[in-house]
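Task card 7
Instruction: Convert sequence to C-alpha cells.
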Amino acid sequence: MKLYIDPGTGAMLFSLATGLISVAWFGVRKLYMSLKYRAGGKVKTDAATTQLVIFSDDKRYWQVFEPVIRELDNRDFPVTYMTQSPDDPGLKASYKNFHAEFIGEGNKGFAKLNFLNATMVFSTTPGLDVYQWKRSKDVKYYVHMTHAPSELTTYKMFGVDFYDALLLSGEYQIDDCRALEKLRNESEKECIIIGIPYLDEKMKRLESEKPAPHERTILVAPSWGANSLLNRFGNRLIDKLIDTGYHIIIRPHPQSFTSEKELIDRLMKDYPQLEWNRDTDNFDVLNRSDILISDFSGVIFDFALVFDKPVICAYTDFDKSQYDAWWLDTPIWTATAVPRLGPILSEDNLKNIKELIDTALEDKSYENSRHEVRDETWMYRGEGAKRASDYLIAKYRELAPEESVEAIS
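Output:
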C-alpha cells in the first residue's frame, strides 16, 4: 500500500523540515560563535571598517542608499556596504571611504549579519529580529530609513519594532509609530524626519533633463499579482487606450516577466504596435509621459511628486490583516493620498478612459492636491542625504566617543 500525500500537505511538511534544519544550523553556529568569543576570538568580517554598515537586501535599493553614501564619503566618513545581490551596482562603486561586499543571498547573508561586529547598522529592510535577520549583540544601534513615500504600517507586522531609530519623511509616520508603540507597550524609538534622498536626486536630474516636445503620451506602469492593473483589466484597458489616439507606453513590473510571463507574452503578441518599455532606469520614460495609469505600484508617487503629473490609479481596498496597519483605527495614509493624485479607475468608468485622462490633465484641482500630498510625505526636499548623514555621524560620535572620525559637519 502506497502512502499518498497531497501537494499542499507535502509543501507544508517540506517547509517544516526546512525550518527545523535552519533552526538547528543557526543553533550550532551560535554555540560555536559563543564559545569562540569567550575564548578570546573575534567574529571575522570582510568589512574594511565596522563604524557604519549599510545593509541592502536587493540591488534596487542602491538608488536609495547612494545619495547618503556620497554625502558621507564627501565628509570622509567610512562606510561598509553589504548586499545580498551579486549584481548590485554598489559593488562597482568607487567612493574613497567606501567598501562593498556581497554577503550571500538568503540565509547565508543573514548568518553573517546575525554575528556582525559594528557600531551601527543602517538599512531599509523591515523585519529585523522578526524573521531570519536577528540583532547582533555586537552591534550597538540599528537605524531604519523608509525607501518610499508611504507609511510604516504597510510593512508586515512588527516591521520596525526592533530598530533603535527611524529616519522618516513625514509627520504622519511618526504618529503611526507612536500609536503602535503605545498599543504594544514599547519604549519610544528615535524618529527623525530627513525627507527622501532618492527623490531629491530625481528632482535635481529633472531640472537638467526637461522632456522634448512630444505627442500626448500615456504610460501604463502597473505592479504585478492577481490584483494588478493588467490582470484586472488586461485587453479591455489596452483596447480603450488605443481608441484615444494617444501614444501608449506599457512598462510591466520587472517581476511580471517572471511570475506572469504567459500574460505578458500574450499581451506583447496582441499589441506589437505599442511601445513596451523595459529600461532599468525609469527616469526617461517617466519624464516623457504626460500621465500615468497604475495600481498600487510605488511608481505613482515618483511620477506625481517629482514630475508633478497626474495619475489614474486602479486602487483597490487594502487587506490590512497581515500588516501593522491592522492595529490602528486611523485610515492608511496612502488610501487618503491616492485619490488626490488623480481619478480612480474602476470597472464602471473604464469605458470613459479618454475622458478620465483629459480631465486629469486639465483639472487644476488635481495639481493643487498633488502638492498637498507632496508636502505631507516629502519634507525637507533637497536635504535628505545631508540630514541623514548629519544624524548618522552625530549618532556614531555619541555611541563611540572614544573613536576619532574626521567628518565635516
